[in-house]
Amino acid sequence: MKRYFFDLATPTAVFYDYQGQALIEPEARRVANLVALDLESTGAFDWAGTVVKVRDACGTTLFSVPVQELGVIAA
């Protein structure tokens, strides 16, 4: 298992995940998709345009998942 970090990058700021999670790669992709989906469906803040960036322990961005507008998802 490797440690993956799930950062949230908005157009104006980055919220870093300093703790991370020990996962296997397919689980890391599922977690990133679930984080994006959770942000898409919350009404507390407009997260559209945010990206969930997944990094390894060295800080290399492995992949990212965009957070879409709720209307785009429902279409």
Task: Explain this structure.
The chain has 75 residues and is an alpha+beta fold. It has one domain. 29% of the residues lie in helices and 32% in strands. It is built from 2 helices and 5 strands; from the N terminus they run βββαββα. It has helices spanning 25-41, 70-74, and strands spanning 2-9, 14-15, 21-23, 51-55, 61-66. Strands 1, 2, 3, 4 and 5 form a 5-stranded antiparallel β-sheet that branches. A hairpin with a 5-residue loop joins strand 4 (51-55) and strand 5 (61-66). The longest helix has 17 residues, at 25-41. It is globular. The chain starts with a strand and ends with a helix. The mean pLDDT is 89.
List the helices and strands and how they pair.
Elements: E1 2-9, E2 14-15, E3 21-23, H1 25-41, E4 51-55, E5 61-66, H2 70-74
